[in-house]
Amino acid sequence: MKSTLSLAALLLAAGVGAAEAARKPVAVSDAYDGTWSIEVITTSGPCDRAYRYGVKIEKGEARYPGADFNISGRVAGNGAVRATISRGSDSANVTGRLDRSGMGTGTWKATGGCSGNWNAERRG
Predict the structure, then answer these.
(1) What pTM did the predictor assign?
(2) Largest CB tally within 10 Å, which of 72, 81, 95, 104?
(3) Can you tell me the distance from the alpha carbon of 122 to that of 62, in angstroms, rounded to the nearest whole number?
(4) Sign of CA dihedral 43, 104, 14, 21
(5) CB 27, CB 114: distance < 8 Å
(6) CA-CA distance, 7 to 58, in Å (whole number)?
(7) CB count in 10 Å sphere of residue 95
(8) Lowest-pLDDT range, 12-16, 53-57, 111-115?
(9) C-alpha angle with apex 86: 81 to 91, nearest 5 degrees?
């Protein structure tokens, strides 16, 4: 369960899901590029209460400096966040929005019954 929540944190800065991106082209915007600090809060389920991660967005794609997770998703030109992160058989779906002022919010739901909210702040 803990690893599932960790996956959710990384996905927060991702965006339009890979399946959606495959169906139609998505404009890539660099308006959200940079380093983001992501706080993930569990509101339901047996996962740890909160996590904080640093995520980098480049050309609308999120990445995490560690190799622990797979991120599939993008940040849309309007800041919409929809993505999936996975680790082994665990995965989490994240939705929300980043804004151009450097803030973001949304929700996440993981396999295993955990769910919650996230907040993001651009750091660089």
Answers:
(1) 0.75
(2) 81
(3) 13
(4) positive
(5) no
(6) 19
(7) 17
(8) 12-16
(9) 80
pLDDT in tens, 39-61: 999 999 998 899 888 888 888 88
CA torsion sign, 28 to 13 to 56 to 21?
negative
CB atoms within 10 A of CB 70: 15
Which is it for strands 50-58 and 61-63: parallel, antiparallel or unpaired? antiparallel
pLDDT score of 33: 92
Take residue 38 and report the two structure tokens written for it: 């992501």
Domain boundaries, the chain: 2-122
pLDDT tens column, 72-102: 778 999 999 988 888 888 889 999 999 999 9
> Closest by alpha carbon to 119, among 3, 9, 1, 4?
9
Helix, strand, or coil (residue 2): helix
Q: What is the CATH number of domain 2-122?
A: 2.40.128.120
Structure token pair of residue 93:
């779906």
